[in-house]
Write a structure and sequence with these properties.
313 residues; alpha+beta; Chalcone isomerase; 5-stranded antiparallel sheet; binds heme C
C-alpha cells in the first residue's frame, strides 16, 4: 500500500510529467530532423506532365509537318520542331493568336561526326522532347500554353512539373509578339526567309545591367575571376523568377556572346540567387591563339560546375 502511495506521490507525478515532456520534445526534434533531411519528391519516370500525356503525342515526328530546324553551335545539339495541323495553319497565316488545340513539339538531338567523313555532322540520338499545347482554360497562368518535357523514353525528368512549366513560359514570353512561339516556318522545298523584323531584333535583345562585383551575392562573387571589377547582369524579372536547369543551359550561349562583346563576365541568376550561370573570356595556352571561355553553372544540388572551352571560328 505504501509502495503504491509512494508511486503516486506528488513529487513522483511531477517527475513523470517532466519525463513525458522531455519525451515529447525529443519526438518533436526527431520529426524536425527527419523532415529536414527528407529528400525532395522525385517527379521523374511519369508519362504525363501538366496534363500532357506522352502517349497522345509520341508519333508527332511521323505525323506532323516540319516547322524548322535549329542548331546550337556550342553544344552541337540539333533541334527539330513540328506542328500539328491547327498550329501549322495559324503559323503559315502569320497569326499569333493560336487557336485551341494548337500543338508544337520539338526534339533535341545529339550530333557527332561521321567517322568515315569527319567534316560531316550527323544525328546521334534523341536527347529530349518538348511539347506545348494551347488550351486557354487549363493553362490560363502561362498565357494559354501548357508545357511538357520528356526524356528519350517519353518519361518525365526529376524537376517539379509546375515549376518547370513556369520556367518554360518565362522564356517563351520573350517572343510574346509571336504568340510565345519562337519558330518561324522554314520550308525545305523552297527558301523562306525568317521574318525577323528590325523591331523584333530590338525586343529580342536581353536586358543587361553593368553591376559592380562588390555588390554581388557571396556565392556568385567567389566565382568571378580576380581581374573583373564589373559584370554584365541579366535583369529580366520573369525569367529570373522561374528558373529550371534547362534555363541555365539555354542562357549560356547568350552570356558567352555578351561577355565577348563587353570583355566582362556575364551573369544570369535566379531571383533567389541560388541557381546561376556565368561566362567569362580569358587567355590560355591550351587554346593557342583563340580565346578560352570559362562557364560556371550550378547543378541540380546548387553546386557550381566549371567548364573551360576554346572558341574556334
Ligand atoms: C531560356 C529559354 C527557353 C526555355 C527555358 C524554354 N524554351 Fe522552348 N524554346 C526556346 C527557343 C529559343 C526555341 C526555338 C527553337 C530552338 O532554338 O531550340 C524554343 C522552342 C520550343 C518549342 C517549339 C515551338 C517554338 O516556340 O518554337 C517547344 C515545343 C518548346 N520550346 C517547349 C519548351 C518547353 C516544354 C520548355 C520547358 C520545359 C521550354 N520550351 C523552355 C527557348 C526556351
Amino acid at each position: 500500500m505504501d509502495n503504491i502511495r509512494q508511486v503516486f506521490s506528488p513529487s513522483f507525478l511531477l517527475r513523470l510529467r517532466n519525463i513525458i515532456r522531455l519525451m515529447q520534445i525529443l519526438i518533436c526534434l526527431l520529426f524536425l530532423v527527419g523532415s529536414s533531411t527528407a529528400s525532395p519528391p522525385d517527379h521523374s519516370g511519369k508519362m504525363e506532365m501538366n496534363g500532357i500525356a506522352w502517349k497522345a503525342f509520341k508519333s508527332f515526328p511521323e505525323k506532323w509537318e516540319l516547322v524548322t530546324i535549329r542548331f546550337r553551335k556550342d553544344t552541337g545539339e540539333m533541334r527539330i520542331t513540328y506542328a500539328n495541323a491547327i498550329a501549322m495553319k495559324a503559323l503559315k497565316e502569320g497569326k499569333t493568336d493560336y487557336p485551341e488545340g494548337a500543338v508544337f513539339a520539338k526534339t533535341g538531338i545529339h550530333t557527332g561526326v561521321d567517322p568515315q567523313f569527319i567534316s560531316s555532322v550527323v544525328p546521334k540520338g534523341i536527347r529530349r522532347y518538348q511539347i506545348m499545347v494551347k488550351n486557354r482554360k487549363s493553362y490560363a497562368s502561362t498565357n494559354g500554353w501548357g508545357y511538357a518535357l520528356f526524356d528519350p523514353e517519353g518519361k518525365t525528368f526529376n524537376e517539379d512539373p509546375k515549376m518547370t512549366q513556369d520556367a518554360c513560359y518565362a522564356c517563351h514570353t520573350i517572343v510574346e509578339n509571336r504568340g510565345d512561339v519562337f519558330s518561324q516556318h522554314f520550308s525545305t522545298s523552297r527558301y523562306v526567309k525568317p521574318i525577323f523584323t528590325q523591331e523584333e531584333k530590338k525586343i529580342s535583345s536581353l536586358n543587361y545591367l553593368t553591376r559592380a562585383v562588390s555588390t554581388l551575392p557571396p556565392q556568385i562573387k567567389s566565382q568571378i575571376p580576380g581581374w573583373a571589377t564589373e559584370v554584365r547582369w541579366v535583369e529580366i524579372e520573369i525569367l529570373r523568377k522561374h528558373v529550371f536547369q534547362g534555363t541555365l543551359d539555354e542562357m549560356k550561349p547568350l552570356l558567352e556572346h555578351e561577355s565577348l562583346q563587353s570583355k566582362l563576365p556575364a551573369v544570369f541568376a535566379s531571383k533567389d540567387e541560388k541557381k546561376f550561370v556565368l561566362v567569362y573570356p580569358g587567355k590560355s595556352d591550351d587554346c593557342m591563339d583563340t580565346t578560352q571561355m570559362t562557364s560556371i553553372s550550378t547543378d541540380q544540388n546548387g553546386n557550381p560546375v566549371v567548364d573551360k572551352f576554346c572558341l574556334y571560328d
